[in-house]
Predict the structure.
Amino acid sequence: MATETQAHAIPLWLLREYLEELGGEAVAEDRVVGDGWLASLEKMAPREVGSLRVGIVQVIIEGSSAALESLLPEFEKKTLRAGA
């Protein structure tokens, strides 16, 4: 099972830290492995609106259904942003 999302205005290093706080271990700058799951992070081209630039990171999390059922709600809480 896999889930894919884009995180806007959250830097890759911070997303990696969130995943580590949720029990994962960074095995590379863009990869975190947890119990029953693997997350891949990829910096995308920033979104530009006028002079505003917003960074985007593609987040792909793969794993067993049970692992994702417990991980994803906690990850979503950490990445929740007002006005998003």
Notes: The beta strands are 2-8, 25-28, 31-34, 37-49, 52-63. The chain has a mean pLDDT of 94. The longest strand covers residues 37-49.
